[in-house]
Amino acid sequence: MADGKASSLLKPLPMKGGDGTYSYSKNSTYQREGLMVTKEAVNEAISKLLDISNTSNTIRIADLGCSTGPNTYIAVQNIIEAVQKKHALKGLSTTEFQVFFNDLPTNDFNTLYASLPPENQYFTAGVPGSFHSRLFPESSIDIMHASYALCWLSQVPIEVENKQSPAWNRGKIFYSTSSDEVAEAYAAQFAKDVNNFLNARAKEIVVGGLLLPVIPAIPQGFHRSKTAIGFTFDAIGSVLMDMANDGIISEAQVDSFNLPYYITTPDEMVNLVERNGCFSIEMMKTPDPFVFKNQPINAKENNSHLRAAFEWLIAEHFGSSVVDQLFERIDQNEGFYSKLDASYSKVLLLLALKRKGQN
């Protein structure tokens, strides 16, 4: 785009709502496995680090980027059980819990609340808005959790869709195999977003409260091109270029479509937290997100997950008729998933961040 304006600037990024075949509610088991492999670390963080000496009779928890599926309820229940166990060990009476579920206003909150577990024992509220800015009153939240959320950028870097920029990402939709200029533009946007995220949370979390982000990451020492997610996004971009060559969409449409998604490394994230200065890093874990997965990637299952996460973006940019054709072409590529298994390299990054005292 010659004027330098990103076509996806500040656009909403909803997962596929409802409970249909391709809904996020039914296609988020990978994220659920992430909760499984980080559960023990979350319990440890709350047991060792959460300061309950000054808490009120109500513990307030927020799950940021909650989306629509059951995963957010699993994450919240894990946190509540850990807090209850800590109270019991300290001989304290059972407290009450208030839980805030946050996502963008375009999130399908109706489906989210329709699936609220009937046995839940906490007070709930929905908080629509971007977690890249303030969401709650000052010093009002004890524990904040965000799983598979910070990897979503607030916007596509402007430079990658500007034809006059050395970071123009022509013919690609992601940065994993693009030039260093493209990768640096994505990294700069991620750094800005993380800083805004931490500044907002520092206002909202009580002193001594915990921030628990769970983030897809690249193992330390791996190049950005050597990851399963990068391989997947490049394959989608390649199929879109094939569709452009077949006249179904235009090459200009592909050039102006970039995914607002970033995969950090543990060292990069540590540096960003330390540079921000609002939180101390009390714990860091990097488990394998597929530690329980002992079989090759299932093609149909993986396609459904991709579609649940990215259908809205693809349909909004190229038109809804393109979505079926795109995933049909990926299905027909028999070698895609064998290569994807071979390219697999990914970890989850769990940080336990403790709010520093007021200056």
TrEMBL record:
Q: Which UniProt keywords apply?
A: Magnesium, Metal-binding, Methyltransferase, Transferase
* UniProt GO MF annotations: metal ion binding; S-adenosylmethionine-dependent methyltransferase activity
Protein's GO biological process: methylation
SUPFAM superfamilies (UniProt xref): S-adenosyl-L-methionine-dependent methyltransferases
Q: Which InterPro entries match?
A: MeTrfase_7, MeTrfase_capping, SAM-dependent_MTases_sf
Recorded superkingdom: Eukaryota
Q: Where is the signal peptide?
A: none
Similarity comment: family membership: Belongs to the methyltransferase superfamily. Type-7 methyltransferase family.
Name the UniProt record assigns to this protein: Loganic acid O-methyltransferase
Query: Source species, please?
Result: Nicotiana tabacum (Common tobacco)
